[in-house]
Amino acid sequence: MARRGENIYERKDGRFEGRYIKDYDINGKAIIGYIYGRSYKEAKEKLAFAKARVEHERSKPPSEMYISEWFEKYNKNDILCIGESRQNLADETGLCLKSISRAIKKFQAEQLIVKKGNQICIDRKQYERLKRTVDEKIGNV
Q1: 3-class DSSP state for residue 54?
Q2: Which whole-number Å values give the CA distances from 137 to 38, 57, 141, in the listed order?
Q3: pLDDT tens per residue across span 33-92
Q4: pTM for this structure?
Q5: Distance of alpha carbon 71 from its chain centroid, rounded?
Q6: Cβ neighbours of residue 16 under 8 Å, at least 6 residues apart?
Q7: Dihedral of CA 111/103/74/130: which sign?
Q8: Neighbouring residues of 49: CB distance < 8 A, sequence distance ≥ 6
Q9: Strand 79-82 to strand 16-24: parallel, antiparallel, or no bridges (unpaired)?
Q10: Which residues contact 113 (CB under 8 A, 6 or more apart)?
Q11: Could you tell me what percentage of the chain is helix, strand and coil, using 3-state DSSP and rounding each to the nearest 5?
């Protein structure tokens, strides 16, 4: 029988299924990962390993995930729309809210991004220009 809070359930076929949060999409929605085991103990061990792997990946500083990485991971039809609030962007990148607001205004003025309501949209050409600009600023050119 599953214990409270471990997210391990017995399926109809007799296997045990464990669920964990694997990642979050660009809008903050949880992406769920699943593991399966023939016994509760096996499922619990696999779940602990999967959670540890995810935690290790998350242990990187948040500022390592920039818009360029978001574009490469989440773009649809070569357009990335970010529906995050500025505060969430600040939390995600490790920058302060004021820096995020200034960057958005500057990128918008330079036509590196387009704001549509509460969303920031970037197409492929803007992404390439934005990536070049960021690389020049941090010295990766």
Answers
A1: helix
A2: 53, 26, 9
A3: 999 999 999 999 999 998 888 876 665 444 444 666 777 777 788 888 888 788 877 777
A4: 0.48
A5: 11
A6: 2, 8, 9, 10, 36, 37, 38, 39, 40, 42, 43
A7: positive
A8: none
A9: unpaired
A10: 104, 107, 120, 121, 122, 126, 130
A11: 45, 25, 30
User: In this structure, which amino acid lies at residue 97?
Assistant: L
Residue type, 30: A
Q: The tokens of 140 are what?
A: 């990766």
Long-range pairs for 8-16 at CB < 8 Å and ≥24 separation? Answer: 8/40, 8/43, 8/44, 8/47, 10/40, 14/38, 15/43, 16/40, 16/42, 16/43
pLDDT digits (tens, 9 = 90+) for 95-120: 777 878 888 888 888 888 888 888 88
Q: 132-140, long-range: CB within 8 Å, 24+ apart, which pairs?
A: 134/66, 134/68
Q: Residue 88 has which token pair?
A: 């969430």
